[in-house]
């Protein structure tokens, strides 16, 4: 037996095997793999995007990992269990970073899902009685968001310098109708609507409770400078913020196919916002 020829043949075979394995890995991966942490309707949208031709054309292999809870999802992003997440508003992100001493960053805007003011007892905002009981979400970002909406609706006035991420009822400067406030788990809004005069509900929770913010609320947010803290964002870690694949996700969200799907599924209640992140930081 010619040992040199045998060794040469084994080396050649190993080289070909490794090359084949490398080609197989590339095909199986179908492009850069990105794991997105999400929940509820956002997860539904990203599953649609993951299967879209646009994602294939962008050479992205998107995996959607559903996680229950905003803090848990942000923690998973911070710890690298997911590459990016899609569920939260700018105000929620600011609040999380402050409370958790974290440095997650937004890489794209996606939509405004309007918070609405709902009631089964009142038919018009002009009819809100003196001393009305108002239910607000019991988490810093959504408490502040609800108070800001009450101000835009003309029911209260907030102190100068109101913090849109952590503001509370203690920051009310003027309360002419002597509103009373009750803090609730923000997932229970549709269930407590009959027990209070007004309840502020985010649209994801409202839809899960059979409510459409554009049709059923007395008053709701609209896209403006005043509501920029409520605009939803794609979020990742600072070391991944320039990753080309992650940056492509914003484009995939705003393409025509995705927007048509969102309109059909959610009846216009996810208002598209395609602005640079710098708009939120101003």
Just name the CATH architecture of the largest domain. Answer: 3-Layer(aba) Sandwich
Overall geometry comes to: globular
Q: Structural class of the helices, strands and pairings?
A: alpha/beta
What's the level 1 CATH class of the largest domain?
Alpha Beta
**CA-to-CA gap between the ends?**
77 Å
Radius of gyration over C-alpha positions, nearest whole angstrom: 24 Å
Q: Which blocks of ≥5 consecutive residues have pLDDT under 50?
A: 1-29
Number of strands: 13
Number of domains: 2
Largest sheet strand order: 2-1-3-12-4-13
CATH level-four homologous superfamily name of the largest domain? Periplasmic binding protein-like II
Counted by DSSP, the helix tally is 12
Description:
Its main location: membrane. It is a lipid-anchor. This is Metal ABC transporter substrate-binding protein. Belongs to the NlpA lipoprotein family. The chain has 282 residues and is α/β, with parallel strands linked by helices. It has two domains: 136 residues, 3-Layer(aba) Sandwich (D-Maltodextrin-Binding Protein, domain 2), CATH 3.40.190.10; 106 residues, Periplasmic binding protein-like II (D-Maltodextrin-Binding Protein, domain 2, 3-Layer(aba) Sandwich), CATH 3.40.190.10. 41% of the residues lie in helices and 22% in strands. It has twelve helices and 13 strands. A six-stranded mixed sheet has the order 2-1-3-12-4-13, with helices on both faces. It has a five-stranded mixed sheet with strand order 9-6-10-5-11. Strands 7-8 form a two-stranded antiparallel ribbon. The N terminus is likely disordered.
